[in-house]
Amino acid sequence: MTPERIGKIIRRIVYLFRKHPAHRALIALYLSIRWQCLVSPRARVYFPGNLRIGRGARIGEARIWAHGPISIGARVSLGDGAILDSQYPAGSIVIGESTAIGPYSIVYGFGGVRIGRQCLIAGHVMIVGSSHVFERRDIPICQQGSTGQGIIIGDDVWIGAQCVLIDGSSVGTGAIIGAGSVVRYKINDYDVAAGAPAQILHSRPGVMPSRTR
After folding, report:
1. Average pLDDT for 186-202
2. Is the C-alpha dihedral spanning 10, 83, 167, 88 positive or negative?
3. What pTM value is reported for the model?
4. What is the rounded CA–CA span in Å between residue 213 and residue 198?
5. End-to-end CA distance of the chain
6. Under CATH, what is the fold of the domain 42-203?
7. How far, in Å, CA of 130 to CA of 113, rounded?
8. β-pairing, 158-159 with 151-153?
């Protein structure tokens, strides 16, 4: 199929989306063709115009709410049941290439969430880039709004199953977070941390690259 023919098909699909609400299978087909990736026909994608997907990415039966921009890098794997929600009004999510996000993990991007390249994020992980305001007692917490500092995860990070990353936390390049941990603050490059709240156990051993003159 020629590029001109593919472009014509994409323009036709976009026109149909603007005229009528689209079935999720049609949206998945459009995204798969548009970005040269694989999106499950059972995935639920809302506001696909705010979504960018890298070539070769694989999106399972996930739910993606792209109120704000969401960028999924090349060769990313998003497991069944996972949720990406950039959150209104100014949230965003960026996922680097070759990162794998396990089944039923949740990423809320209200304050901005950036996940690096070649990361391993296991199932049932929660990455929450927002927090509720609770200063007042005279009105319910649910009516006081939210704040968002955001979360940054470096490259080559391994986050174990059922971890929670709290708004304002960060995980450095090459770090490892043990299963079931709660990350509240900064984890430095190549640290190994675990617990609730997460505590630094040690740094990863390894051979540093030699310097040549």
Report:
1. 96
2. positive
3. 0.86
4. 40
5. 52
6. UDP N-Acetylglucosamine Acyltransferase; domain 1 (2.160.10)
7. 10
8. unpaired
Rounded to 10°, the helix 3-19/24-35 angle is 150
What mean pLDDT do residues 70-81 have?
A: 98
β-strands 186-187, 191-194 pairing: unpaired
In the DSSP assignment, the letter for residue 201 is E
Q: In this structure, what DSSP letter does residue 101 have?
A: E
Sketch the domain layout of the chain as residue ranges: 42-203
Backbone φ and ψ for 140, nearest 5 degrees, come out as: -60, 150
Length of the chain: 213
Structure tokens at 172: 């450095």
Contact 28, 48 (CB under 8 A): no
91 vs 90, higher pLDDT: 91
CA atoms within 13 A on the CB side of 139: 9
